[in-house]
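Sequence design from tokenized structure. All designs in this work follow the same two-part layout: the structure record, then the generated sequence. An example of the structure record is given first.
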């Protein structure tokens, strides 16, 4: 068998890369991201895929590809979860089998999965999200940073069926409800998670805190070695710059010696990121097939992250009051740019708890590269007035009150850590309760209570609230997006006389929904008398951006391709395939959706 490459996403579209490589000895996927464009053709913020049917519905709509042997079996065929015959008889199975079972694909057999691994080039949703549907027997290959990021993204989100790229939801059984006094419909069918016999106690890796869980979390297998072999396929992960940490290209050497380079998303103009020279050096040898991204093949603009910092610093410098700034929370390069710009202007950057959480996770895993956000000068975490809007300690939990994403549940009534955290906050937690015997703090304890519990409640003690910002607005730069617009009620005094400036340091809207949100943001800013720079496009105000893209420009892509000098080029993640065809005549192989290319 000759090796084959099949493209199931990223073909004439930006993102959604899904590339299947099959060889005589081993098969792998290169990314398995969400095709955002296809998904949003049908779904929107308030109409999302039905979680119990997501795989089957998205296969039918063509958003997910029909590939045999890779998807988790109970997502393909929900009837495997039926507890017994009685359940089958309760649902209209004969009339509508297709509601619960699809014949579009064969499910994965964990003994013989159709692919031996999935590479994830970086943790953007258009490259990672649909890993959620792959059988957990298929390991994920990525950099350690991508793994840490995937974990952090999971920790701070409400997880649904399509957020299972890191953590896997516990399998459910579909059974009849028992006749209990609390049950309105005994005998009727429902999904129920299998409860564990004992409440598992699990150690938090960064704090060594042990917490009681209802159900033990399950995770995918991640392999983060930078080089290795998957059956007959050798691989090497090559770090690259992008608008998220941990991005890499994947270099594969096939059993017959052919070399394939998949770029993932790349740029060469970020701060302290890999140069084209370094990149070409790590590839070290001829490339037979180059699968390259081409997002910006039509753009000559080359500005650097340093330029962005200069502009933002100047913007802050000419602002007389509070500065609000919008940027992507996973873009730690941009965070650093804005942090430096705030410091240059003697201001404190106030970030949201999600970003703070990610910074601490990165610090924990890479302490020499990322400082502890708790000790960074001029950096604070914002405490929204949320929950019951009382600024009550009870309005916060998990990562919103500190650097832990889990505080356990004291169902077993033996969780000493909950008691300690409560004590620390000064509310609740009865240290004299005989059911919760607290150990004395001593050398025998594996950790220092004071320090570690301060981690759990850090924002409550050190966070910044809107009224504090309103008292001295000139001292702050606040991370701010459309989703925070309600904060303006608390941030801007009633007379609206305070001078406030908004800066957009994020990507331009690239979908209809984003354009609508931008128009709404304009309304908010105008109402609250907030200054911003803009241009008019199609009679709509569009914010002037302090931003550089995560993608290489045309001149950079051309230099890259010429220096690698591959025998064949397959451009993906682009809307301008023809530009590649014109420039690299005879070398370009244009991918077609789901049509194998022999190599
Ligand atoms: Zn990306």
């Amino acid at each position: 068998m000759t090796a084959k490459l099949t493209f199931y996403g990223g073909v004439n579209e930006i993102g959604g890369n899904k590339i299947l490589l099959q060889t005589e000895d081993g098969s792998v996927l290169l990314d398995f991201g969400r095709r955002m464009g296809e998904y949003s053709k049908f779904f929107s913020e308030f109409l999302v895929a039905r979680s119990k049917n997501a795989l089957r519905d998205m296969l039918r709509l063509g958003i997910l590809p029909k590939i045999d042997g890779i998807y988790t079996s109970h997502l393909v065929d929900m009837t495997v979860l039926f507890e017994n015959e009685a359940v089958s008889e309760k649902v209209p199975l004969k009339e509508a089998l297709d509601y619960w079972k699809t014949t579009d694909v064969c499910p994965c057999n964990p003994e013989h999965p159709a692919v031996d691994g999935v590479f994830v080039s970086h943790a953007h949703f258009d490259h990672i999200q649909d890993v959620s549907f792959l059988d957990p027997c298929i390991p994920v290959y990525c950099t350690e940073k991508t793994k840490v990021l995937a974990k952090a993204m999971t920790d701070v989100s409400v997880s649904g069926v399509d957020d299972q790229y890191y953590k896997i939801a516990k399998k459910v059984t579909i059974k009849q409800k028992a006749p209990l006094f609390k049950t309105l419909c005994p005998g009727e069918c429902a999904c129920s998670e299998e409860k564990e016999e004992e409440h598992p106690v699990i150690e938090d890796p960064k704090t060594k805190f042990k917490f009681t869980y209802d159900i033990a979390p399950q995770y995918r297998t991640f392999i983060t070695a930078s080089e290795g072999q998957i059956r007959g396929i050798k691989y090497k992960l090559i770090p690259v710059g992008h608008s998220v940490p941990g991005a890499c290209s994947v270099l594969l050497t096939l059993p017959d010696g052919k070399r394939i380079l998949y770029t993932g998303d790349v740029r060469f103009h970020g701060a302290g990121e890999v140069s084209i020279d370094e990149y070409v050096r790590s590839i070290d040898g001829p490339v037979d097939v180059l699968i390259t991204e081409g997002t910006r093949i039509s753009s000559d603009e080359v500005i650097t992250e340093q330029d962005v910092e200069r502009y933002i610093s100047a913007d802050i410098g000419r602002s007389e009051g509070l500065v609000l700034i919008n940027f992507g929370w996973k873009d730690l390069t941009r965070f650093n740019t804005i942090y430096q710009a705030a410091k240059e202007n003697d201001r404190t950057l106030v970030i949201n708890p999600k970003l703070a959480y990610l910074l601490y996770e990165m610090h924990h895993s890479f302490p020499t590269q990322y400082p502890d956000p708790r000790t960074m000068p001029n950096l604070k975490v914002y405490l929204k007035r949320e929950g019951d809007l009382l600024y009550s300690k009870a309005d916060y939990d998990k990562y919103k009150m500190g650097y832990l994403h889990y505080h356990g549940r004291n169902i077993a009534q033996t969780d000493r850590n909950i008691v300690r955290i409560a004590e620390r906050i000064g509310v609740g937690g009865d240290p004299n309760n005989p059911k919760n015997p607290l150990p004395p703090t001593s050398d025998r304890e594996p950790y220092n209570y004071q320090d570690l519990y301060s981690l759990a409640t850090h924002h409550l003690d050190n966070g910044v609230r809107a009224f504090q910002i309103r008292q001295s607005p000139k001292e702050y730069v606040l991370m701010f997006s459309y989703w925070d617009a309600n904060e303006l009620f608390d941030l801007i005094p009633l007379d609206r006389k305070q001078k406030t400036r908004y800066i957009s340091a994020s990507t331009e809207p690239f979908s209809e929904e984003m354009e609508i949100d931008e128009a709404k943001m304009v309304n908010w800013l105008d109402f609250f008398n907030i200054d911003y720079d803009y241009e008019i496009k199609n009679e709509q105000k569009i914010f002037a951006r302090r931003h550089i893209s995560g993608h290489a420009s045309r001149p950079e892509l051309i230099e890259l391709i010429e220096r690698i000098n591959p025998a064949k080029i397959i451009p993906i993640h682009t809307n301008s395939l023809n530009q590649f065809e014109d420039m690299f005549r005879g070398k370009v192989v244009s991918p077609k959706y789901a049509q194998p290319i022999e190599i």
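Residues 122, 124, 127, 242, 265, 550 surround zinc ion (CB under 6 Å). We note this feature because it recurs in several other targets discussed in the main text.
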